[in-house]
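User: Batch of two.

Assistant: Item 1 of 2:
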Amino acid sequence: MKQSFNILKGVWKLLFLFLLILITFSYAMFQGGFVSWFLFYSFLPFGIYAIFLFFYPLNQMEAERSFQKNEFNAGESLKVTIILKRKSAFPLLYLVVEECSSEELVFSMQRIKAKRLLFPGFRKEITWDYQIDDLPRGEHFLRAIRMKTGDSLGLIEKEKQIHLEDKFIVYPVYEELIYRPMENHFDKGMAASKERVQRDTSVAIGIREYQPGDRFSWINWKATAKRNEMMTKEFEQRKSHDVYIMMDCTPDSRFEAVVSFTASIIRAILLKGAQVGFLSVASERVAFPVRSGESQQQQLFYHLAKVRDNSLVPIDRVLEAENFLVQQNVNLMLITAQITKALIDKVGFFATRKGTVTIFLLKNEQELPSPDDLALKAEAKARGLRVVFVHDGNFASVFSEVASR
């Protein structure tokens, strides 16, 4: 319907243009004199150009888009180069070029930079550069390039949209942390261990299937040959340093800080040599098994780049539904921006059965804990839980403060 309307609108403008030429010519013929003919000859070039522009095939124009890389960290800049090519050198008085992007970039403050007025003239190749500063976290798409041109009188306008899709990912920003595993010493409370996590490889208690992150020296070649699949030795592990992280995805203004701290602590844990698992429940439930290695970090960072704070279920109800955590021999960490009595109750039940549980409560940079937060922290401490306040922009002090306590 819209396309048919645009065609009729274009035909009407063309007929109106011929009518204007006819009127000025008739006026010159019947009126005579210098002024009338000057008016006709002055308008004639504009009319003829508009007629040629009406039949100019803007569909023949091609576009190329390029940028240096496809992976960024939040806050970085993206420089995009667009090259427009056309077959003929028909003069174009102006060309409005606009980038069509995904919603996250449309509502970015940098949107004005993705639209430009160009003056091609007779050039067959036109190059346009623009830059988006302070990229927001997420998976973003550049979907198409919209072009619009017309004559100087505004009688004829032509518009073309070239579908050209490119994708790039913006990972959450993270801080370098020195992770210190939390150890429960019962009477003495919790302490921070500075030693790098190591498995006890002196005693092999069985075999299992190979998992990404397993060392080459752990492979049991005899069992691998018998089963015709990679098998590794299962070693005795006297104390688990594995960590399972739950991230709260309920709507909150501090959600970006929650994601950033989650990325920071995941990276720190994996660099320490421990294994990490992850669970988030936003619009859908996403869980990652406890693993280590670069591939685990890459998968978790990719998820953190796309996750949104659109969960309809509070984290205490999420924890209640995840019964599998009770069977996991891991240290549980909850990262949230909201702490409630219900959450303390659910986490307290888990702590009585499994041991070490830490709740990281995110605050803005200069935000002070409320009286309710302090009261819930005291209640959590009485139940053997640890609540740590984390301020945005000061992640590095979290484990140094733990170590000094």
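Item 2 of 2:
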Amino acid sequence: MCAIGQVIGSALVAILLTGSVAAQDSALETRVGEKGFESPSASLAQMDWLVGQWRGEGIGGAPAMESWLPPMGGTMVGTFVQETETGEIMFTEHLYMMEEEGSLVLKLKHFNADLTGWEEKDDMLTFRLVGIEECAAYFNALTLRCADPERPGEGLVAAVRMKSEGHGVKELIFRFRPPFTPKYISYGCDGTTIEINDCLAGIRQRAEEREELYFETAMGEAGFSDTGESELHSLMRASQAAAQQHREKECYAVYEQWKEGTIRNAMSLRCSIRLIDQRTHTIWRNWLTYQDTSAPILPEPGPSM
């Protein structure tokens, strides 16, 4: 087993064998059951929000991906891939989530990049269900939940609890997003042409307000010199102005393409919303996140609605 495997594997096994390692803390993503706990009733039908491919950042900020297939034969099959900083495979996980005794259990095995296993041939890690919510499953020391319960499909949080020295608790937290954005988003705007345009205009305004909030927060996090704004601030403002100028020209071109049709305004507004959201996410990624697994300064922005 590689070094990282020894650390993660031994820490997980320690928790799974000893049960509760600390009192439940609402600031933690994971939960642990008391010794001899009973799992709540649950079925795979409650996990449909998990199906799909999810991409984000894992250990050390390197890319990671988690994928889940729909249930087949009473089992959901999942895979997890952790890359290195240079884009190579660090390790993978093969996961089975299945119904067992009226509840759910998650079983997994780790593999190195050369497909040699961390666990012994017939061994695996088993996580029993501690609690379940509409868009979250809390297994013993392992959590899978929607980033935003009101918007399933826009983000996934996966966390695993590690046993650390003393009485402290350490977690590995992975924040995923869908890897691809649909080319066309309706944004839930229906009705007449005027109603659709008004709806999209309102969404664009909310998108712009969020973009401004994220940008100003990023500027504040960049710090100030004794004389006011630093060179970094000047570069950030120039970048923001360039992004806004590009957005204006790009979406005017879209308007020009559709100028003979009644959907010209709607197409231009959708263009603006999409590019604003992309810019907001770029601001978030560059300035409002950390290289380790610390929670971001502001939540990861999803599509405006």
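Residues 193-221 form the longest helix (29 residues).
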